[in-house]
Amino acid sequence: MATISPIIVTGCASAAHAGETPAPSGALVYFVNLKDGDKVKSPVKVIFGLSGMGVAPAGAEAENTGHHHLIIDRPALGEGPDGMAELDENIPADENHAHFGKGQTEAVIVLPAGSHTLQLVLGDKDHIPHDPPVASGRITVTVE
Fold first, then answer.
1. pTM of the prediction?
2. Residue ranges with strand state E in 15-86
């Protein structure tokens, strides 16, 4: 289990070509223990679910695998300021993008009181979304 703060997040960027890693049809990433509208207390435990693919650390070349990224308090993947270009680029490493490149399947995150959006996105060995992207819907949780 990883403990992160959305203010201090590490990750790596790569010069790999974007969106070249295929995802199998029907692959899904989802929140196991959270749903849209939940009221939670910080720190928040987030359990990542994945079906139709496997988890592998960043940098590992294994077919039908990837690693988790948690998008915090920003538009859904592909709907941000860079729009669809986000789907072809490395997922950034900043206060809104938590990388789990060691293959983690859960995390504990510290969020201040208030409303927060969360989305899970699977990245390939180079932190680039798969083709097609494997991403959850964006949910909103309220930290009391």
1. 0.85
2. 28-31, 39-40, 44-51, 54-55, 65-72
